[in-house]
Design brief:
Blueprint (H helix, E strand, L loop, with lengths): L9 H4 L3 H6 E2 L4 E2 L8 E8 L2 E9 L9 E9 L2 E10 L11
Antiparallel strand pairs: 1-2, 3-4, 4-5, 5-6
């Protein structure tokens, strides 16, 4: 056997189960979930529902602008809208959400 005889290309091997789950054939697209390892997350809860969610780079102060903020509205324990604003976590209730 010479070098490379046992090598199989990706075409010969096919997709793994994980690759098949993340590929959307009907859209010819790949699902990608970005896990923000350099981000901090803050959540304000009302009962069992998240009302405000904020993302910012680790170490950014709560009162410093640079936060991605979501305001989530709930009806009968179901989320019905998610509006976005950019600002700071401390002043989240005063931000203009669109």
């Amino acid at each position: 056997m010479s070098y490379g005889d046992s090598y199989k290309s990706e075409k010969d091997i096919g997709n793994s189960n994980a690759e098949n789950r993340e590929h959307e054939d009907s859209l010819f697209a790949k699902r990608i979930m970005d896990v923000p390892t350099n981000q901090q997350i803050k959540v304000e809860w009302s009962g069992s529902d998240a009302v405000y969610v904020g993302y910012a780079p680790k170490g950014l102060a709560e009162a410093t602008d640079g936060w991605l903020l979501w305001n989530i509205s709930w009806v009968s324990n179901l989320p019905v809208s998610k509006l976005t604003a950019y600002g700071n976590w401390t002043g989240r209730a005063l931000e203009t959400f669109e």
